[in-house]
Amino acid sequence: MRHGTTRAHAAPPALAEIACACATARQVARLLTQLYDGWLAETGLEAPQFALLMTLDAHGAVSQAELGRRYALDKTTMSRNLKLFERKGWITASGADDKRERRFAITPAGHARLAAARPEWKKAQEHLREGMTARQWHAMFQAFRTATRAAQSAQRFKKPNPERKNYGTRSSS
């Protein structure tokens, strides 16, 4: 033991990293969401809300099912988010070719909210990007796309569990 250091004051050993794709992805997702939420806090939007509005802004009217697939969200979660957006006046719903489906489009109020949030989103992007080289930045997106495709493909082989809800996946019923 070094002079002046006691066991009670020693730093605890660091937890070992585990080679688990799920745990690592969840850690990254939480940290990224916290980063973007911090920058977006004063705009009245959270990171997932910003992403949904960006998608509607870029693609025009989109069905709930299309949005759910894009963000791997179940129908209930997607409905809850879209109802909130409608209440706030950020989106509007309209009918689609399939009468069982509605399409959602961003409203002028949604455009205004997005325009106010975009500079803060850019700051979050810049701060994250500063921690990487251009090559790492592009590799990150490639790795995310590859992992997404692999997870979607692997879901065909998941073990069914009747006791658990299928969060983030569409049910077959």
Concise overview:
The chain is mainly α and 173 residues long. The chain is 57% helix and 7% strand. Residues 167-173 have low confidence and may be disordered.
Folded structure, characterized:
With 173 residues, this protein is mostly helical. Helix content is 57%, strand content 7%. A 3-stranded antiparallel beta sheet has the order 1-3-2. α1 (21-40) crosses α5. The chain starts with 20 loop residues before the first helix and ends in a 19-residue tail after the last helix. Residues 167-173 have low confidence and may be disordered.
Question: Tell me, what's the shape?
Answer: globular
The largest sheet has its strands arranged as 1-3-2
Topology, number of strands: 3
Radius of gyration: 21 Å
The stretches of 5 or more residues where confidence is low (pLDDT under 50) are: 167-173
List strands and helices in order, with pairings:
Layout: H1 21-40, H2 47-59, E1 62-63, H3 64-71, H4 75-88, E2 91-95, E3 102-106, H5 108-130, H6 134-154
Antiparallel strand pairs: 1-3, 2-3
Helix pairs in contact: 1-5, 2-5, 3-4
Key terms:
disordered C terminus; 173 residues; 3-stranded antiparallel sheet; mainly alpha; 7% strand
